[in-house]
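Incident log, structure service

09:12 report received: a user says their structure output differs between two submissions of the same chain.
09:20 pulled the input from the user's history:
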Amino acid sequence: MKKVFLNENWEMRRVDEETYIEAKVPGSVYCDLLNAGKMEDPYWKDNEDAALKLMDYDYEYVSHFTCDDEMLDKTEVVLVFEGLDTLADVYLNGTHIAYTDNMHRSWNYAVKDLLEASNELKIIFHSPTKFIDEAYKKAPTRGTEDAMNGFVHIRKPHYMFGWDWGAHLPDAGIWKPVYLLGIDTANIESVNIMQYHEDGKVRIELDPEIAVYEGDGDDITAEYIITDPNGKQVAAADCSEDAIITEPMLWWPNGLGEQNLYEVTVCIKDAQGNELDSWSRRIGLRTITMDTSKDQWGEKFATCVNGVNIFAMGADYIPEDHLLGRVDKETTRTLLQKAVFANFNSIRVWGGGHYPQDWFYDLCDEMGLIVWQDFMFACAVYDLTPEFEESITEELIDNIKRLRHHASLGLMCGNNEMESFVNDGTWVSKQSEVRDYIIMYERIMPALMKDYAPQVCYRPSSPSSGGSFDQPQDENRGDVHYWDVWHGNKPFSEFRKFHFRYLSEFGFQSFPFKKTVEKITDDERDMNIFSYVMEKHQRNGSANGKIMNYMQQTYKYPTSFENVIYASQLLQADAIRYGVEHFRRNRSDDRCMGAVYWQFNDCWPVASWSSVDYCQRLKALHYYAKRFFAPVMISCEEEGMLGSGQELVRLPFEFNKSIRLNVTNETLKDEKVTVKWQLRDASAKVLREEMVDITVPKLSAVWLDKVELPEVDIYNQYVSFAAYIAGEKVSEGTVIFSYPKYFRYEKPELSYKVEGNKITVSATKYAKSVEILNENEDLILSDNYFDLNGDSKTVEVLSGNIDSIRLKSVYDID
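09:34 re-ran on a clean worker, output below:
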């Protein structure tokens, strides 16, 4: 086997122009035009509009390469495109060898007879915008109105045509590697690895899929070698014999154990013992299933790892950029490290983007992030023509085989939200679309999963109670997308009315940092959330006004752009905190077993639901997530003005005032926890203090007794609380009983000092949600947006320059 990459010596041009420019492969049309100075930054102001028009044209990519005699003498030579975006004619030495129409799969062509010592490879990418326009005229199949008409007709990431957080930037190009495979007789196309955990041992079956190019293959043998995480060989034999791992080192998700990875290498040999090909991957020894057993409320929906039901904690991942040529393994690593930072153990790959690169899953394996993988179908109906069925079948097989071995792969899901939408008749224009839904997600996909990945859990849709349009948003079965907080304008306290089994989408918007906004404008007049530029970078209708509506209910009116950003991020953080804390408090008996918020990241500078903005700056929500996803967490279910339904000017002005503390333990050991709480005034003076020692069993939540506080002064008093293990504070928080805008915060006189890579922040009074920023607003700290009770807190600087530090708290919102 000989592999030669063809990623060098590329040039490109618009087909109606004569001049070629240098091209980068892997990359994209937009990236190449930007690098050559032939287009403006599509994210700047309203340049998106001009960038979109560039996709009305076709683009040609050309590369010249040589082949040595060794390659030319191979039994067969296969030209492999791991990814072409999207509509492309491919020519090798002037011969048309392929037309591609699906970005979500690889394309392989036997080309030995066409190769010469010197070769020309040419690819013409056709306009995606013209294609969908014509396709929509012929068949007006519909989907979300946030995307361009006709987007359902092309197997290309839907978000590229617009979403309620995405731009209209349908890029094109060679987005994954290109290479030649020189094959001697046969090669390994894939290996299906099956694990059976029995009596403390693991039995592994290895079934290689071998493509034979010469002879009948009867004399080809397949052998494997398995090495443990320490590099020690633990098994080696012919693939016809199962491997037995007698002392398995199990793989666990983040927070529950080590991410042990074994190396599996399979090689094939001819009758003379010559190696023809080898295939190597890392696997984790573990079981992952979804526990859907019946219980007193309905049906569980819990991720079960190695026989242990865990509470899924994480967020929904979208593509990292509109310009995919900007994404590489290191940008993805940096992003996923932020997931681990925030104590994620799960991540959902949303179905309107693309299947991530191999390195994404490799990193999730290493970091212990369980992947919920949507297939790439979202918010649309599809006509299941024979051609479309053939295309998606190849796409599905390709990706199932590519991903199935990963330790982190927890679940594969048919689509995003279409069971709910089709059930409601949304975008359905003919009954055949309902029929095609059932065929696609409840016949084709589960059959392919059974054939190619029988040990990977499959769900037909998200949300879903199991399929067949059986109440897909049932509170007591399956997963739910809950949007009444935000889209429904309900208060944050609304979360507490529900006990969803697994919440796979819920979210709240905020604005990115000002330094991120400066990626889209340098005009101070644009630094207003209702300016033309800011609203061009807000894709959820009138959502800037929605943020301000929630802000009006919660905070005093912020008079600076920076304070609007700060207040919006606190709103977002508190909204998601309200939900996550409630669901974690109710994880006992496996009732609520997942809180995966929308969304983790951005793909361009935009107002959105993300906790990490486009420039990878951490919003307040991300620091809150680190605390509300902590392995052992204390939280408070308070009764106060929020959620009471009581209006300030209506009499009688009465509502319950109480606290009920809860400690949740998402670890594999029982914990002895000391809980302390204090009633304080606005100066942080302690008016009442109580302490109790409790034992919190592993994988459970323990309620403390409710404490009535009928006499509390809701405008001048608050409660602080903390949990300690072996004398170390592991979790803490505060609650007030009025809206923040009514609470009479006293000036906290915030100050700081720097010692090495540590910053100590002090307050003389109660300081809520203390923000620490540097000049570039890119500090990553061990903690931020925390509360101070007239005391100090020391945080570690993990990245960023400690220069021009500035501090802020809720007191400063005015």
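09:41 both user submissions now match this output. Likely a transient worker issue. Closing.
09:42 reviewer note: The radius of gyration is 28 Å. The mean pLDDT is 97.
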